[in-house]
Each structure stands twice: as structure tokens, then as C-alpha cells.
Amino acid sequence: MPDKTDNPNPELSASALKYDGSQAPLIIAKGHGQLAADIIALAREHGVLIHEDAELSKLLSKLELGEQIPRELYLIIAELIAFSYVLQGKFPDNWHNIHQRIDLKT
């Protein structure tokens, strides 16, 4: 069975963001079809977490390379970044896990 990236959906879209912690995230890569498949494959190869959301992808694809995400997307992107940190076991120094719902021993 061929891999999805062998013959990608021409409507496949991908955007990559860079976040340095001091400014709003920047669009550093974007593309459709084969280019989108290549962006996704490269991200997976380097252990970058991938979030699939067709509506968010549509909005991000309208931005230019090097452009910061608009204020309207701050909340959703901040939630995704925060969730990705939790998945990687990263927490802020002053985070106290007050509800004891996350096992920090793993």
C-alpha cells in the first residue's frame, strides 16, 4: 500500500510556526499538496508535534512567510503550545500542579 505522501491530496495544507517565547509565533513554512506533505514528513522526522485542524490550517495559509500570527489566533495557538509542552513533560518553574492531575513522575 503506498504511503500517503507518495501521492498527497492536492488540497492538503500545512503551516509551520516558530515560537521563541518573546514574540507572537511566526509562520516559517507553508504549502499545499506535495510541499505540505514534505513539511509534515520533515516535522515528524525531527519530532515536531503536529496538530491537524482544517479550519486553523485555512487561516494560517492566508498569512505570509515571516508574518506573526494575528491577535485573533493568540488564544488557540497559546493553548496548542501549552498542551505540547505538557505532552513533552515541560512545565513552568512556578507551576504547582494544584489539582494533582498530572503525574510528574513519568
Automatic annotation (TrEMBL):
It holds the Pfam family Bac_export_2. One of its GO terms (biological process) is protein secretion. One of its GO terms (cellular component) is plasma membrane. It comes from the Bacteria. Keywords: Bacterial flagellum protein export, Protein transport, Transport. The keyword Protein transport applies. Belongs to the type III secretion exporter family. Required for formation of the rod structure in the basal body of the flagellar apparatus. Together with FliI and FliH, may constitute the export apparatus of flagellin. This is Flagellar biosynthetic protein FlhB. It comes from Alishewanella jeotgali KCTC 22429.
